[in-house]
Amino acid sequence: MYKKLTNCKYCNLSFDDLNASERANHSRWCDLNPKKQDYVNSLRTRSYTISDENRIKRNKKISEAHNRGAYSHVDFSSIFKGRKHSDETKEKIRSAALKSKHRRLKKNTILYNGILLDSTWELVLAKRLEELSINWIRPEPIPWTDKQGRIHNYFPDFYLFEHDLFIDPKNKHAANVQKDKIKILLSSYKNIIFLYSLEECKNFSLPMSAIH
Fold it and tell me: Which of 45, 67, 101, 203 is 20 to 30 A from 56, alpha carbon to alpha carbon?
């Protein structure tokens, strides 16, 4: 008779909040599982033949399970590395990205008044701007140059065209990851405002310098 596992047999993680599939996946990828490397090698081989559609579905399921704690204490840093591009290929990809004027929207978007938003923070800010009768658009990308002298495209979330003001909500994690980029942008453009909390989005008001 099948016995339902209540803890990981390798690291003893509690399975109370996980479904059957998540229990099995955690045990498979647990860092203390002696067969983990076999699974890693198998996945790397299959990653070259899996379709883009199936890869997206797989990664989405893994992300959702990870958020529910299915992969606690599991280090994925050495698993999903994928192919490495040459410097020449990286430069071609970067050049192509610079020519693109399209926003790279996230998978989970929110449709609001016919415009796709990337997050609930953006939705809150959009509603706040509407409350204040402030018109805005999704702007064209603007260039910025990193410390190595390479040019990139920056896609602000909101452009208040009547006030020549860019607004960009950034959660704490994104702000930390992009701190060098943000510092350069703020020094290069005096009309960019970053909002670092949901409360700032809810209570946004125009700075005095933008009121004219």
Answer: 101
pTM beyond 0.90, yes or no: no
Distance from C-alpha of 198 to C-alpha of 203, rounded to nearest angstrom: 9
Structure tokens at 144: 């910025």
pLDDT digits (tens, 9 = 90+) for 159-202: 999 999 999 999 888 899 999 999 999 999 999 999 999 999 99
CA–CA separation, 21 vs 55, rounded Å?
18
Contact 47, 54 (CB under 8 A): no
- Burial label, 43 (beta-carbon count in 10 A; 0-12, 13-18, 19+): middle
- ∠ at Cα 133 (132, 136), nearest 5°? 105
Could you tell me the residue ranges of all domains in the chain? 16-84, 104-210
pLDDT tens, residue by residue, 69-102:
655 555 555 555 555 656 676 666 556 555 555 5
**Which residues partner with 153 through β-bridges?**
143
What residues pair up with 178 in beta bridges, in sequence order?
A: none
